[in-house]
Predict the structure.
Amino acid sequence: MSSVEPTPPISEARDSASARPWRRRLLWGGGVLAAIALLAVAGAASYLAYSNNERADRWRARAGKLERNADTLNALLVKRTRTLNARVRQLNVMAAEVRRARLSLTRSEGDVKTLEQRQRELANEKAQLEDQRGALIEQQSSLEQVASAYSTCKGELEDVLSAFADNDYGWLDANIPTVAADCAYADSSFDDYLAAYR
């Protein structure tokens, strides 16, 4: 048995035929809207890609500039470091010179103190020598007095011998007490000298 499809009624066929252009129009409108939406999305994507590309170019330019600045700053830092190291070396040399000068000054001050001490010692020695000189002058004066007394005694004793030789007893009687006193004075002066300067 074959089945036959029932034919739609004429009013339904008319409705479906009139609905088709609306569908087509809807489809076309939807396609156009989809195309516009697609174009808008593509435009926005293009704009974003272009904008991102510009940003990327700006960032690359900034990065290049920063890299050049970093290189310049690095070169300046190296130069300043060299200059600073040179100054540090100069300061170290000057500090060593100052230390040597300070040591030399300390030694000189020590030498000055030693010289001042030696000067005081020499002044003391000079004072002692002056005292000794004064004592020697006094001793010399005493010795000269002893020598003068003995010289007088000797001269008078020679006169006594001459008077004995000439048998001049009158002269002897008159001068023997003086000769004896003068010789006794010479012996006494000598004893005093020995007591004072031994």
User: Anything to note?
Assistant: The longest helix spans residues 10-165. The chain has a mean pLDDT of 84. The chain has one domain: 49-197. The radius of gyration is 72 Å.
